[in-house]
Design a protein that fits this description.
The chain is of the alpha/beta class. It has a single domain, classed as Rossmann fold (3-Layer(aba) Sandwich), CATH 3.40.50. It is about 40% helix and about 20% strand. The protein has 5 helices and 6 strands. It has a 6-stranded parallel sheet, with helices on both faces. The longest helix is centred in the C-terminal third of the chain and has 17 residues. It starts with a strand and ends with a helix. The model has no long low-confidence stretch (mean pLDDT about 95). This is Alpha/beta hydrolase. Pfam families: UPF0227.
Amino acid sequence: MHIIFSHGKESGPWGSKIRRLAAEAESAGHTVESLDYTDTLDPDQRVEQLLSHCENSAAPDLLVGSSMGGYVSLVAAEKLQPRGLFLMAPALFMPGYSRQSYLFSGNTSIVHGWNDEVIPFDNSVSFARSKLAALHLVNSDHGLASALDDVAALFAAYCASVESGS
């Protein structure tokens, strides 16, 4: 599978979460890319950047996004229609973001920290409920660093399920 990662607002394309998940994906034989969105803080410009990138490269089988990157991945998924979407503490239903409703209803898994101080976990609960998406609440904050082993295990299992079509 081909996997594209989208980082958060104040992170970069190869932060610790992405490096760890990319290593999991590569060890399973998947190809990975992580786009660099650091030239803009506008989430909708980041969506356009992802869509533009995908016009000129291999279509992603799986989109992975963290925080603002979760919003970017979800909105882009409406057009790209990947086989799966893995979101970590996604910035959904956030004030100031142009999109407050989301049309993609494909295979989605979400991981969010109970102690997230940036994005309320209730936002992920609301989205997961509306789309019947898998939701994993872990004992961590917004960065999910203290639960990275759990997140990596959930990601590896998710990738295997998407690859097998289950």
